[in-house]
Batch of 3 targets.
Target 1
Amino acid sequence: MSALLLAAAAGATFIGVSARWNWWRRIRHDGLRTLMYHKIGTPPRGSRLKNLWVCTREFRWQMEYLLRYGYTPLLFSELRDVQAGRRRLPEKPVLVTFDDGYANNYEAVFPILKELGVKANIFLVYECMERHNEWHDPATEPWMRMLTWAQVLDMQNSGWVEFGSHTMKHRNLTALSQQEVRWEVSESKKRIEEKLGRPAIAFAYPYGAGAYASAVRAAAREAGYAFDFGIRQGISPWPWTAEAGPLKRMFIRGDDNRFDFHLQMTRGKSRF
Ligand SMILES: [Zn+2]
């Protein structure tokens, strides 16, 4: 009887663990992996969005993982060159992306990128630059400093980082009129290009909202971005065309462990 109970407990544990860690998913060798980060460092007191924070030590380990397993981190412009047939896609391409443009991307991330030789891309919220994350309710996520244009130019000039648009104000695009949506996606592109002196090639939908809403996505495509990114989990098909839908990403959570990261890289997903 106790042997039976033990077997049942073992079975339940196995099922539980296999639901949490999807080791049984098919290993993928194809496609484009895009990692999605937000903030690197220690969450401030009062943060209720702790999973959007990845600690600096784990971030460094994750970048070392990419290099150890032969991944080639790309810039948006390099991916565009691949799409245009001007550059060959490396064997294991990956995009490292950051949403929102926090100052900690310069202070905590940039030194690691330079030291290890990893390229990354940051989506900026134009009107929050040099200010704070004003779209957050401070009761949920304390306000913190965003990047300055001087920091952005320093990163751009280094050759390790490129920038895309994450709209003007980080509003939910599905809650706006079509005219406002067009302003959010087109005006931010134009203004970022004026500041940086080069094309803004990629766009990320705030909250992922509107990525699959036809009118919103049409506005993003018409603005002239080569790539648009949602927050749907997974590995994107490559070659990719806009008809395939927005590029997927892999959300790297603050409470992911190293096995989660490995599962994300090999399977595109680590949990349900
Ligand atoms: Zn965002």
Target 2
Amino acid sequence: MRSIAIINQKGGSGKTTTAVNLAAALGENDRRVLVVDMDPQASATHWFGIRNPGRGITDLIITQLRLLDLVRATEVAGVAIVPASAWLSGAEKTMAWDGASLTMFQRSVQALPRGQWDYMLVDCPPSLGILTANALIGVTEVLIPVEAHHMALPGVDRVMASVETLKKHLNEKLEVTGVLACRVDHRTRHSREVVQELRSRYGNLVFTTEVHENVRLAEAPAAGLPINLYDRLSRGARDYRDLANEIMGQES
Ligand SMILES: Nc1ncnc2c1ncn2[C@@H]1O[C@H](COP(=O)(O)OP(=O)(O)OP(=O)(O)O)[C@@H](O)[C@H]1O
Ligand SMILES: [Mg+2]
């Protein structure tokens, strides 16, 4: 199983949009995907239309249930989810920056049955706090969505630095799988410049695929459907299909 944390401490970067729609696009290719919602905002959980999520992943922290016990089916082919809930922000405050708290998620991932999922995608909150640290210690790959806006660029260096620190001290297997330009609008020079700057700074780490600004992507959460089911011919659906292909292509 490939395990990928989707992180960027900047709010509104496209993390949840990427987690949900990449999962659905991989599912379309007969891949089995487990989405883990690590964000107290529970946006991915809502997007998949999970009602009564219970405490979701918070139960890892407060009742020490197994991750497998928290997995819920979704309506989307190939995709299951460990939901989040607002409970998570309270539980986060009880967690200390010690070995036991930091490795809680990693231990729960190691206890998952082997071979059940091809991918685990972890949707992280917009901070580099202890929940994101748990995600980064429990996975081997990081995907960094970046909104195509100048303000977003300095944040990418900070994410890279955090990943390096974690790799050095707590998870030597961690690698950046890719930086993903999101909300790209080629009609504006500004947006084109930001994508160019990303490519010159991070080179091959930047995915060839760019996710364009697409209103259908912004509408899809309210419909409770990933973009491939909401509007399969939309630009957003094509972009996430391309991303899924690029990610699967990394395996050959
Ligand atoms: N390609 C896109 N085209 C149009 N709207 C988009 C696109 N990607 C994301 N959005 C919109 O931008 C907003 C932020 O996106 P999203 O929720 O995916 O970011 P996030 O990084 O998960 O945010 P948070 O940090 O709050 O968790 C949402 O309203 C979403 O619908
Ligand atoms: Mg989000």
Target 3
Amino acid sequence: MSKKPVVKIGLIGFGVVGEGVWKHIQQNRSALERRLGARLQLVKVAVQDMKKKRKVQIPPDQLTTDPMSIANNPDIDIVCELMGGTTLAKKITLAALHNGKIVVTANKALICKHGAQLFKTARAGGGHYFYEASVAGGIPIIKVVREGLVANRFNLIYGILNGTCNYILTRMERENLTFDKTLIAARELGYVEADESLDLDGWDTAHKAVILSYLAHGKWVSIKDVPVEGIVNITLEDIQWANKLGFKIKLLGIISQNNEGKSIFVRVHPTLIRKDKIMANVDGVYNAVSVNGDIVGSGIHIGRGAGQDATASAVIGDVADAVNILLRTPQPMGLEDTNELYTPVGSNIELSSLEDVSSQYYLRLSVTDKPGVLAEISTVMANHDVSIASMIQPEESSNQKTTLILTTHQSNEKRIQDTVRDLEELKNVHQKPFLLRIVNFD
Ligand SMILES: NC(=O)c1ccc[n+]([C@@H]2O[C@H](COP(=O)([O-])OP(=O)(O)OC[C@H]3O[C@@H](n4cnc5c(N)ncnc54)[C@H](OP(=O)(O)O)[C@@H]3O)[C@@H](O)[C@H]2O)c1
């Protein structure tokens, strides 16, 4: 019997994800090695604090506080960057890729910010850069888009990409809890990132949407060009009104093609989705990504979007692809050039303008409770060619103020944003109108 070749792996970071990768490679080693036809040797692990107590034990001589020594170690074939951040992680990744190594990452913020440079370096150095764990954790969505659906052009990709926001919205809806109370529970369970804005203001979703848009269209969209709204302004009242109107509210990252495929738009915002849609019923910490390909039609991929095990599963999946490359066994499609695979579709693609992006809208207004106010509001909306589809006015009012919930017929972002700006100017409208999008995707 021939001896299996040995593939050497270095981990940079031994936190939630790094410990998971180590633990699961150890636990499933024999099955994994049989499937891959190689032995996996975890050579070195970089951490910040050597003295930290860790749930997963590791021989002290395998630890280092010098992550660059892993990137530059000629014995190491695969570097897993699992430390996070965009400064040191970038330097280390560039060094490893310069050295021709295969780098596996879960670092969505880094790819979103420096993806173009990192993939270019991977090509130039003869290395590869894999990032399955950076989007939707345990759902192998990168592989689905890159390989399984390679025959398609993608007119629409959208999804619930942040489990923390989905958990908060689900509990608010199911238990009639306020945003603040639910956030406290999410913090206690360790679901919220140390920098809470990443989750709650939509930036984490935006990082993932940017990566998906690159993958689908070969275009790096700057995060500055992505309108990003999180969930912090959603009230229990909005969730209840949405429910009465037949919708649930989900935070979505949306990558849509417009102008017959000549332009794309990437956006992140809380969205009203009809209750009978599959996406509306993906609850709790689960993620879901709907991919609409011109040949295959639409399909929804659902799974655990983060956490130690789901993310480790994705990292180890990439390690397996890396082993395939190193052993020169038949390669999964597209791995020879992870950067350029989709550029024929996207090389000339533009960013869409606000006029190109349409939907129905939900508006919550706080208005003076007196005759004539509704006429003022209707006039402003008509001036911008936005027509009202439905209106709800609760019976109770306080201090002569009342809430007005309006939904509109199909309009576009430019018209609705102009409408909101003019409504805010009205004397009888008491705060900035709160706007949500209503989508009717398949
Ligand atoms: N957690 C998730 O569910 C999840 C899901 C998807 C993607 N990700 C991404 O995965 C990456 C890692 O996340 P995580 O949750 O595992 O983070 P984490 O628990 O904070 O772990 C970070 C690890 O990096 C090490 N580290 C930090 N700075 C270092 C330095 N200068 N030198 C050497 N080691 C250093 C830390 O060392 P010490 O242990 O000594 O402090 C720690 O082991 C991030 O990019 C994150 O966005 C995470």
